[in-house]
Specification:
The protein is mainly alpha-helical. It is built from six helices and two strands, in the order ββαααααα. A two-stranded antiparallel sheet has the order 1-2. The chain is elongated and about 60 Å long.
């Protein structure tokens, strides 16, 4: 087991902090979690250059495509609360795996979607799954 000494003040005795993971494993976990949390920001902004092409492909106005961005942002504001609470109740790992699986599924479904309504719904699902990984990432990195 890896252990580290942590001192909590001048007069206090140095306490040993034990972990099942070595320091290298901890850094790998933090790197993976941070990498996944980065996808939320990437997913929201990578969409902008393709607005005109999406409007043409779905035969809708640019305002309707902008509505998909608004729906993404609206769901992304609520998702951390929902998935953060789920991670507390069910555990971080199962919620993280479920969120990433649904995120990948939503991305594939967006690529294959042919209707505007499906695009709006799948963008909302995409936001729900990936934006909710932030509180889980905070929880993981606070213990590393």
């Amino acid at each position: 087991m890896a252990h580290e000494k942590a001192s909590y003040g001048q007069g206090e005795e140095a306490l040993e902090k034990y972990s099942v993971f070595s320091t290298a494993h901890k850094w790998c976990i933090v790197a993976m979690v941070s990498y996944v949390a980065w996808f939320s920001t990437l997913t929201s902004f990578i969409y902008y250059p393709a607005i005109h092409q999406l409007a043409q492909a779905f035969a809708v106005s640019i305002d309707k495509i902008n509505l998909t961005i608004t729906s993404y942002m609206a769901v992304a504001t609520v998702a951390p609360i929902l998935l953060g609470d789920a991670a507390v109740v069910l555990g971080r790992r199962p919620v993280y795996v479920l969120a990433l699986g649904l995120y990948i599924g939503a991305n594939v479904a967006i690529v294959l979607s042919n209707s505007y309504a499906a695009l709006v719904g799948l963008r909302a699902l995409q936001a729900l799954t990936i934006s909710g990984t932030f509180p889980i990432a905070y929880g993981v990195t606070s213990f590393a």
